[in-house]
Each structure stands twice: as structure tokens, then as C-alpha cells.
Specification:
single chain; alpha/beta; 5-stranded mixed sheet; 5-stranded antiparallel sheet; 27% strand; globular
Amino acid sequence: MFNNLIISTLLFSLEKYGERNAFCIEGEYYSYARLKKGIAAVRKVLHNVSEENIGLVANDDLDTYASILALWMEGKCYVPLHPGQPLDRCMDIIAQVGIITILDSSESTRYRDNNVIKTSTLSDEDKQISPQEQADSSLAYILFTSGSTGRPKGVPISRGNVAAFVDSVGKLGITLKSEDRCLQMFDLTFDLSVQSYLLPLLAGACVYTVSYKEIKYQAVFALLDEYHLTAALMVPSVIHSLRPYMEEISIPEMRYSLFCGEALNIDDVKAWYECVPNASVWNMYGPTECTIYCTAYRMRVFCADKQTNGNVCIGKAMPGVKTMVIDDKGIPCDTDVKGELCLAGAQLTQGYWNDEKKNNEAFFLADDGTRYYRTGDICACDAAGDIEYYGRKDSQVKVNGYRVELSEIECVARKYYGGKMAVVAVVTDRGSGNTIKMAVEQAEGNNGFELKSFLQSKLPSYMIPREIHFLKKFPQNTNNKIDRKQIKELIG
């Protein structure tokens, strides 16, 4: 499926759209013909490499993107190594996978003890050779995400997983054209990057990238403003950061505006509608373990969108995906009853890299033999089959014996600010029981007394934050999501 659906289509794009632009990187365009030569050059040196899992320094340049496609055409798997993250963390990833060879387009490499192929010094190669076919069960990439132990955990994604994702997106009716101008704002260590470069290249479209060195929302604003992009997948925090500038943003050319990566705030997206009046707007959901995203909700611009505590509904399972909401005993929940969302289907990884203990905790077999993944997200299915998102399982806590949804407190606080401020509630425990604290981003006036009075008029006493802290700007993690863990450390 991967060879037919992805490799063959990529080869077709490289041939048919040779003179069209494939990438715009830091304002410079690169054609499909140039990309084709870069792929051939990397493939030539990979012929002498026997191992399947190859390290890839995830720079924002054409050589790096050509390397990904070259690795796939050689039947190999890429393991991205972030150029801006600590070397010790990257070396731990290298050790976990047993990486010997690393592709690096940097001027100077950090990996002197490995077999490093400097892709930036390779000569263009015109000769093309047939792709090396591999089974769909072989790996396409391995991404390392933050682990609860402090050590990154590997999520291997197979070629079949990627092909199932591409097939599923097409069945949703999301189809790009060669004329499209598509945003790629994600670091290559984040799985949303895969959809952002792959789907455009399959269609012969142009990919507009953002470097990890840039402030993401500012770079996105610049690309939207200058190039009037027609398709964009973004994390919701980007449009929240863009709200002060939305009067300056008008992109009637936008055809697809997708969101994924964290809860989508209803007030932010309503303001965004005005910027992209002709776009098909979607809220997507999915952990790395289920290949990029696996549920979808098409929003209704002129209707009341489904939302819970200010979080937009995450919709229904995409084609080929199964969902189930279970209670604490593992029993499927009835309609409108909250529980943990579990996922199954062709997009689901076969398990964490060399971590049998974690696999036993995260995956299970249902009564019908279907293998499911526990997401750790609290959800409920409504009567129409749409999934309402409440938050992470660890955001549902007990305070003075009462079960509290922190997202409900956040939703009420945002109403006080007219939906224009980001709010995060956390719980700390200093031995005397759980204590709720709140952080507010860029609140004008910093009036915690009035906010607390408003909360007291809307919420029971056990849900009122004991402390309210005002932060000029919420910290974000490397995937540009609000870093709740760091906020908790700052105000704890």
C-alpha cells in the first residue's frame, strides 16, 4: 500500500511537476526538478549503507527533506534528531535505536563518533533508480516523545501506518491541488510535520516551511500575509497568539484550515473564521501512536459548533480507525458518559520501541480481539457519535473529595476575559491535599480579586483557585503546545 499510494505518487510528482515549486524555505524556492536531483544524490550514497534505521538531523532545508524521501525510496526508516535540543538527549535516542549512520546537512556536525553523511556536500545526481520495495510492516520513521520517566520514548510508525493515514485523509474529502500553497510550521521531530510536507508533495503543491529557530506564530503570520497560503495545519496556540493581529489577516484564498495537537478553543476559532471566510475548517485529534491524527470534526462556520468547556468537539473516527470510550474497569461507556478514549485500526503503531512494560500498560485487546491504545484523554460520545473532549486524564482530579475537571475552571475564567486570554489551572500537592492554582496569560490590569469574585459567582467553593498568577507569555514546548508542566513549576 505504501509503495503504490506514496512512493509511486511521489515519483509521479517529481516527473510531472519538474518546473513547479516544491518548497519555499526562508524565502527561496526549490523546484521539483531540484528536489529530484537531491533525492538521487542521497540515494546514491545510501546504497552502501546496510542498516535500516538512519539518524537524520532535522534541519529546515531542502537537503533534509530530500533525505527523507530518499530514505523511503531506499526502503529505510528515518529517526529525526533535533538540531536545537541537547546533545545528550539526541545521543540517548541514537543509543536506544542503535543508530550507526546519520544524515546531516549542517555546516559542521555534532556526531563525530558516528558514520556521518554530509548531505550538503553531495553533488546533484541525475540518474534515477527504481525504489526499493518493502513490506508495509517495515518502518517509515521513529519519533521520540517525552517520557514520564524523563527519558524520551520511541514511537515507531510503519509504512502501512502512513499509507493508512494518507488514504483516510483522502476519504474525508481533503484533497490538495498542484496549485496549492501549503504551510509546514512544525519541527521534523513532531509528527504533524509528516502530513504538512507529505500531502502537498503527493499533490505536486508547494510547501512553505518554518525553521525551528523562528518564533512560530510570527513566522506563520509572515507566510500567511506574504504568500496567502491555501492550506494550513496549525496547533491552536498559534491562532491564539495571532488574535491581536487578526484584523490585519485576510486570506480568502485559504481552502483548508486544520487544527491539531491540543484542545481547540471555541472563541479563538470563531475569531479565525473572519480571516479565512472561504476555508473548510477542521479540528483534528490524534496522538503520535495513531499516526498524526485519527478523528476529525468539520466545523460549521455559520452554526453553533459542538464544544465542551470551551474545547471544540474532536468529531468521529476517520476511515479505518476505531474508537471506544471506557470506564475505569475497562467497560465501554454509554452515550454522554465520560471515560478514557481508546483507539484502534490501521494507523496504530505496533508498540513503543523496546519497551514491553510501557506496551503492556498502554495497549490492550478488547473482547473481540481488537488491539486498542489507551490515550489518557477523557472524552464522551454524544448521540450523533461525535466525541467530546474534556482534557487529559490527569487533569481530572479530586479536591476535598470532589471530582474536578480543571478544563471547566479554565472555561469559566476565559469567559471573564471575553475569550481573549489563555488560562491554565493546575493542582499542586504539598502534603495537605490538592490545591488549585491558576495562571493567566497577559491579563490586562492583573486584577486577581475581580477574577476570583467572578469565579465564585459561577463555581462551587471547592473549584475556586487559591492563587492566581499572571504570566506575560505562557511557555511552550518544542511542539508549540502550551507547556502545562512548566507553568505548574512556575506557579507551584
